[in-house]
Please model this.
Amino acid sequence: MKKNKKIIDLHRYIGIFLSLFLVILSITGIFLNHTDDLKLDKRHLKWPWLMKLYGLEAPHVDQHFEVSDHFISNYQGQIFINGQSSFAIQESLKGIVLSNGVFYIATSKEVYLFSEKEEFINILEPPVEEIQFIGQDQLNNTILIQDNVRQIWSLNDIENDWQLTEIQSNPWSIETSMTSMQQEMMKNYFFGKGISLEQFLLDLHNGVILKKLGKYLLDIVGILTLVLSVTGIWMWSFRKKR
Model:
């Protein structure tokens, strides 16, 4: 009798355990069966834990500058203007200024010119060993840079040449922290709309969402289902004999 009780208890506990998976399979299966009707491929999820599970963690920019209502970010050498990839650099950013509708984006060697519509204009190479800062004068009329020996150079934007000057910047462009809205713009570039609800339900249904763990978990579920079947048949035959 003790042996029979152990088998009955085993059957019961396996049944309870498997019922949880059957509920998930049933719910996800019903939804997936009506993918077109529910427009699951048009609905998207961007939950932080889900994005991390899919290996889509939010990018952490290396540098970030703001000017007026615009922002420039450096992510692993890729420069983003207002959340859109614009060009690549080898050096670090030194700052950004906006003058007459033109962005002046300084690296340690060059100054890149882009329009407010993020269109490339030109590259300037100041006669300095290294750019330390970029800024504008008090009236925001003149572009200024400071080199590695603390000399200040002003840009003649008509002839695109640089001259030593005593003019002081007001102030130099410095790094800032990203706002939550700017972070969302960067996420949208890398992740798009997020994970479609159809993909999430499909991966949940077949266990792919848990990667290797999901594969082994389905193996366990398959084995337990066999055990449940065998113990069920044994219990039925035992009662029939009685």
About this structure: Helices lie at 2-33, 35-38, 48-53, 180-191, 197-206, 211-241.
